[in-house]
Design brief:
- This protein is an alpha+beta fold.
- It folds into 3 domains: 1-213, Uridine Diphospho-n-acetylenolpyruvylglucosamine Reductase, domain 3 (2-Layer Sandwich), CATH 3.30.465.10; 216-325, Alpha-Beta Plaits, CATH 3.30.70; 331-405, Alpha-Beta Plaits.
- 34% of the residues lie in helices and 21% in strands.
- It has helices at residues 2-12, 21-24, 48-60, 113-120, 139-145, 152-155, 189-193, 227-239, 252-262, 282-297, 310-321, 323-326, 346-359, 386-405, 430-443, 470-476, and strands at residues 17-18, 41-43, 65-68, 85-88, 95-99, 104-108, 125-126, 162-168, 174-178, 202-209, 211-212, 216-224, 246-251, 272-280, 303-306, 333-336, 363-369, 374-381, 463-464, 467-468.
- The strands form 5 sheets. A 7-stranded antiparallel beta sheet has the order 15-12-14-13-17-18-16, with helices on both faces. Strands 5-6-10-8-9 form a 5-stranded antiparallel beta sheet.
- Strand 17 (363-369) and strand 18 form a beta hairpin.
- The radius of gyration is 22 Å and the shape is globular.
Length: 478
């Protein structure tokens, strides 16, 4: 490692190679804090050329590397389970260009999600994917996990908004996939790269699709006496043909935590809060607004408030995006899940998740991308209580099993990472997983690019890669 460190310093500079224990401690996990694995070295390259040289050096020495952005990921995708290098791309923050005529931006992957929209705002354009962490999360992380956010209901996931990418392959070779328009005449390697969680290569630059800011935006806050009534209102809105830009649902526990935090005057006695946002041409918005209100009133709504201006709209969204942070007032740790269910099963899923919480004596707060059935149950716990941690891990698995049993899947936007790797066989057959291994092997035959992520290792017992993880010890008994 001393020799490797010396060569890395030659590439990126001494200040951009970290090896002190107190520095490495910062990089032992991402926002999925149950599983810890400290890297041997942290490297912060500043350009595609430096990334290429670092990866080539790692490949020549058989050293694993895990790409990392802001560390806001919730499935352990940036955790260095295989040891080696944490390849941190947060120095690469430039928005290189905004083309208002072709409606695209080109950015380095360390640029934050929000910075793309800020750069495009003067042209009346913005970048649609908007995860709750958009102020901090990087474009590289968004691409790795195929991030979504509240507005993906109408506008789609990150993969719908990435037109091209510059990628460093696991041997250090640099390739360009796509461009200012999707290449539909050959293998969709770009589509393969988006959502691959750094297991096939390292994206260093991206060409991003921008969309025009809507003429009109209407944002509603509605309260319901039960989550079942709220869930039915969501189904009714979509059933009549209205596709809002976003439909977000928050339960009473989370609502009260947000109110304690922000003092917005939210109705504490409501069992569920629903945010519905409509956008589009001025013509038609009023008709959609009537439909949404009717669906809410048909389902025992306790109160409806519409934002009167942009400031009020942003205040409503602040409440939603502060939800998980506000839960820190209740418990010091939270494990946020990411299961997906059919929208029609929303009320049933909520009821059964509550039963799982009661069974394991756990408090579960719930936030939902209700419009597309993406659930975010947050299990609250104390990290130093090992018995509680054990119950959290087991309950988390039962919630994912429930989602699959209801006709859903394991992840809507957080990815598989190390968090759901043992649950992959719930959705995919061994033949499916073997086909995925073939793809991984085609790009990374030495298995150095973010190893032990996404694909279960059939030979491991209680481990993921080379380092034992607490969740896998609990779930496998090894």
């Amino acid at each position: 490692m001393d020799e490797l460190k010396r060569k890395l310093i030659e590439i990126v500079g001494e200040e951009n190679v970290l090896s002190a224990p107190e520095d490495l401690l910062v990089y032992e996990c991402d926002a999925e804090t149950l599983d810890l694995a400290r890297p041997e070295l942290v490297v912060l390259p500043g350009s595609t050329d430096e990334v290429s040289r670092v990866v080539a050096l790692a490949a020549a020495n058989g050293i694993a590397f895990s790409p990392r952005g802001a560390g806001t990921g919730l499935s352990g995708g940036a955790t260095t389970v295989g040891g080696g290098l944490s390849l941190v791309l947060t120095r690469m923050t430039r928005v290189l260009s905004v083309d208002q005529f072709n409606r695209v931006a080109v950015a380095e992957v360390g640029a934050t999600n929000l910075s793309i929209s800020q750069a495009a705002r003067r042209f009346g354009l913005y970048f649609a994917p908007d995860p709750s962490s958009q102020m901090a999360s990087t474009i590289g992380g968004n691409i790795a996990e195929n991030a979504g956010g509240p507005h993906c209901l109408k506008y789609g996931m990150t993969t719908q908004h990435v037109l091209g990418a510059k990628v460093v392959l696991p041997d250090g070779q640099v390739v360009e996939l796509g461009g200012k328009s999707r290449d539909l005449l050959s293998l969709d390697l770009l589509g393969l790269m988006v959502g691959s969680e750094g297991t096939l290569g390292v994206v260093t630059e991206a060409v991003l699709r921008l969309i025009p800011v809507a003429q009109s935006v209407e944002t509603m806050l509605a309260y319901f006496p039960s989550v079942e009534d709220c869930g039915q209102a969501v189904s009714d809105i979509v059933a009549v043909g209205v596709i809002p830009a976003a439909m977000e649902m928050v339960d009473q526990l989370t609502l009260n935590a947000v109110e304690d935090h922000l003092h917005m005057g939210l109705k504490r006695d409501a069992a569920a809060l629903l945010i519905v946002e409509l956008d589009g041409p001025d013509v038609g918005i009023s008709a959609q607004r009537e439909v949404v209100e009717k669906a809410a009133r048909n389902n025992k709504v306790m109160g409806i408030t519409w934002a009167n201006n942009e400031a009020e709209r942003l205040r409503i969204w602040k409440a939603r995006k502060a939800a998980f942070g506000a839960l820190g007032r209740i418990s010091p740790h939270g494990y946020v899940l990411d299961g997906v269910i059919p929208r029609s099963k929303l009320a049933e899923a909520i009821r059964k998740i509550a039963l799982i919480g009661a069974k394991h004596d756990l408090t579960i707060a719930n936030v939902y991308h209700a419009g597309d059935g993406n659930l975010h149950p947050c299990i609250l716990y104390h990290r130093d209580d090992l018995d509680e941690v054990r119950r959290v891990v087991i309950a988390g698995r039962e919630i994912l099993e429930l989602c699959v049993d209801l006709g859903g899947t394991l992840s809507g936007e957080h990815g598989i990472g190390i968090e759901k790797i043992l649950e992959m066989p719930l959705v995919f057959s061994e033949q499916d997983i073997e086909a995925m291994r073939w793809v991984k092997n085609a790009f990374d035959p030495a298995n150095l690019a973010n190893p032990a992520k996404v694909l279960p290792n059939p030979k491991s017992c209680g481990e993921s890669g080379g380092r034992p993880l607490l969740r896998h010890q609990i779930l496998t008994g090894c």
